[in-house]
Amino acid sequence: MKDNIKSVFSKSDYIEGYQELVIDDDGIKKSSSYGESLYRWNFMDRVKELDKIIYVQLKNNQYLVIPKRVFDTNEELQNTKKFILDKGLQSEPNTKIKNIFKPKELLKLLILIFGLFILTYIFYAFFILVLMLWKM
After folding, report:
1. CB atoms within 10 A of CB 64
2. Model pTM?
3. How far is CA 37 from CA 9, 23, 40, 93, in A?
């Protein structure tokens, strides 16, 4: 495994120019047109792999995002993941985000919101009517 792994992000709508990540024994160094930062391994908490990205959670709940498309081969991707895990980061299981509402609960919530909207409208109409009668 190389001591120094570089990945260059292509231009996107969210990043002006490009970003470069260097992953080595010191940590992950992120460089862009705005400057550069070094995130040391002891400042990182966990790593999670999704379909198109690997993200590293920092201890301050910020994230470093590594798009998988920057790796030339699957072997390079696997070596990078192993290198990161060997630094002591916890690996989160690849779980899908679950819907916290069941369909019936969601329907009840929508009915409640709609009901509050209607009550607000009725109160507003009643208030306008009282003001009109007051001015007569």
Report:
1. 19
2. 0.56
3. 16, 12, 10, 28
